[in-house]
Amino acid sequence: MKKAERLNQELIFLRHRNRFQLNDLIENFKISKRTALRDIVDLEALGLPMYHEAGRYGYYQVISQKFLTPIQFNEAEIQAVFFAVNAMQSLSDTPFNRNYQRIREKLLAELSENQRVQVEKVSKHIYFYDTAPITTVPHLDVLMQSLLAETTVQLVYGKDDQRMFLQLFDLFYRQGVWFCNAQNITTGQFGTYRCDLMRDVIMQNQPQQRYTLTELQQLYEVYEATHHQTVFRCVVTERGKEHFLRNHYPNMTLVREEESWIITGGYHADELAYMAQYILGFGENIQIVYPAELRQTTVALLERIMQQL
């Protein structure tokens, strides 16, 4: 690690510490005692205010955390930050939609002219493509705030206008759709929900019931272990393996057995039709080993599609 980069990492390391010992730098950055002493001198020169308490149990005391020198980024790190912002903007539907432009403007204001030129090159000539959102979810920010606050949301769900209270365990984006795993306080059951099917979402400050994230983690693990009870097994080609790596779900695993690639996993009975649609996405690059029900449902779906061509 270059010295400038190490000093920057040491500033990050010390940012939330009121005091530290020389061994803290030696052990965390794998440097000698002499190098650590030189780094302390350099850190003070960079503006890190501290004083040294000598003695057998001596330590360095950081005088005031609010005066710490701002963290410095190198050219590659600056470009990576802007690439990440551009990539998230390409989704066009996230809990942070209104903040991206402000973030970009603030970051650009801190850069030199040459750094701005390099950032513009990254923005214009390096792209990130992903599946665009199929529908908009205007309440994503409410769902995120509820998740972080570990509270519940009241909402109306689906075509049947089901009224329910949910406590979210996570939010995730897959194939153009935002989902969440959550505990349904109304029914007492854990499940996966599409965020675009939610309406009238209201965050509850005093929920009917509240779980910790640790408790929700346990409910999620039980749900994953018991919900997908129908076991399936498929053989895929090399191209099928690539398709799986681009598009698969937590209930599926890709393994290598002798000369073949195998997809194994499980699904719930209610997901049979969806599994058939998923299988057809592999085209000729997949073979269903079992169960027979999945093979029959997939063949029936293919026949209906052929009748419409």
Q: Quick one: CATH class of the largest domain?
A: Mainly Beta
Write the CATH fold name of the largest domain: SH3 type barrels
The N- and C-terminal alpha carbons lie at a distance of 61 Å
Helix content: 40-55%
Count every helix, treating DSSP H or I runs of 4 or more residues as helices.
11
Largest sheet strand order: 7-6-5-4-8
* Shape label: elongated
Q: Averaging pLDDT over every residue, what do you get?
A: 84
Order of helices and strands: HEHHEEHHHHEEEEEHEHEEHEH
Radius of gyration: 26 Å
The percent range for strand residues is 15-25%
Instruction: Please provide the count of β strands.
Output: 12
Global structural class: alpha+beta
CATH architecture level-2 label of the largest domain: Roll
Give the count of structural domains. 4
Flag low-confidence runs: none
Largest sheet: 5 strands, antiparallel
What keyword list fits this structure?
SH3 type barrels; four-stranded antiparallel sheet; alpha+beta; 309 residues; 4 domains; 11 helices; single chain; Arc Repressor Mutant, subunit A
